[in-house]
Amino acid sequence: MKKHIGQLYLALAVSIWGGIYVMSKMVLTVIQRLELVWLRYLVALVTLIIVGFLLTNPGI
């Protein structure tokens, strides 16, 4: 398993990247572009805060 972890991460990155394009097309019919950009930054910020918290506090 450890031997293939890089390939799994690569597949995950490609899936997310490809999914963002399709999702953006659908979401842009509802909200404006700048609002979508800020929502993406907000989701990334919250995710990084959670990951950072979990990495610095491994007992939780």
The residue fraction in helices comes out at: over 70%
Please tell me the total number of domains: 1
Sheet-strand content, in percent, reads under 5%
Structural class: mainly alpha
Cα-based radius of gyration, to the nearest Å: 15 Å
Largest sheet: none
Span between termini: 25 Å
Task: Tell how many strands the DSSP assignment holds.
Answer: 0
Count of individual helical segments = 2
Mean pLDDT across residues: 89
Overall 3D shape = flat
What series of H and E elements makes up the topology?
A: HH
Q: What low-confidence regions span 5 or more consecutive residues with pLDDT below 50?
A: none
Keywords: Membrane, Transmembrane, Transmembrane helix
Protein name: EamA-like transporter family protein
Transmembrane segments: 6-24, 36-55
Organism: Thermodesulfobium acidiphilum
